[in-house]
Amino acid sequence: MTQFWRLTTQADFALLGNVVEHLDAVGLEAMSSWSLFDEGDIARLDLIFTEDPDIEVVRATAGFPAEMELSCAPMPEEDWVRLSLKGLKPVEGGRFTLFGAHDRDAVADGQIGIEIEAGPAFGTGHHGTTRGCLIAFSQMLDAGAVPTSILDLGCGTAVLAIAAAKALPDAEILASDVDPEAVEESLENCRKNETPGIDCFVAEGLDHAKLAGRQFELVLANILAGPLVELAPGIADILTPGGKVILSGLLTEQEAMVRTAYEAAGLSVHRQPPLEGWETLVASKT
Fold first, then answer.
1. What CATH number did the domain enclosing 234 receive?
2. Are the C-beta atoms of 219 and 151 separated by less than 8 Å?
3. Do 25 and 134 fall into the same domain?
4. Mean pLDDT across the stretch 23-50?
5. Where residue 127 falls among pLDDT bands split at 50, 70, 90?
6. Based on the number of CB atoms within 10 Å of its own CB, is 209 exposed (0-12), middle (13-18) or buried (19 or more)?
7. In whole angstroms, what is the distance from residue 162 CA to residue 175 CA?
8. What range defines the domain where residue 253 resides?
9. For residue 40, how many C-alpha atoms fall within 13 Å in the half-sphere facing its CB?
10. Pair (22, 162) in one structural domain
11. pTM of the model
């Protein structure tokens, strides 16, 4: 059984949000995941490691201020997933309900269930970015949208691609991620959710033969503010006329920067209500 360590700190949400965006960019040895919780006046950041980390190395790499208190301790020596599930309940995002195997009977009538197991990584729906994307997608469907070509860009666990496949079984759906391990997890989640038609593959941004010359009626991009800005012209190009992109993974103070990038690329941008300090934007191509 793998032993995990949890490093925890508390501070302003925006400060910790900047820290995790930096960590996603530079990486940190033996860190398997991070979790950022908005707890009102103060936020909490948990970093999960597969070996006992050097706190001062973490501080220097992540850019934590010298005065910020960091604490680290081994997690209880029991199954990580079982431990996590004690506090992990089904989450609703619009017409979708995300659940673990322990809650298969908890999906309400009329909801579309998506099984994503707990683990030392995000993408299970217990995060404002995933929920924000699912809510925005649900609103599109409620308004009568029936996209037939969909790209989940930076798919992670493929939860958004799976949601699209379950809601729109006749659509062509591609799911890409720069991380081969994420793609492997995505394939397993597609199998578990009986959505084998999703084409999952490794790609850096939009650089892949499967995307060359393609256009999509819907792009789902739950990544980070920096890559979203960098990819704005390319995403605008791969949208069909009338196509939409759902953008998330950005903090409230980054919303204006991302919005400006997509407006400069010729798209009209609608801001969704923020969730847990995270923003979701829906941009449309005329």
1. 3.40.50.150
2. yes
3. no
4. 80
5. low
6. exposed
7. 9
8. 127-284
9. 0
10. no
11. 0.77
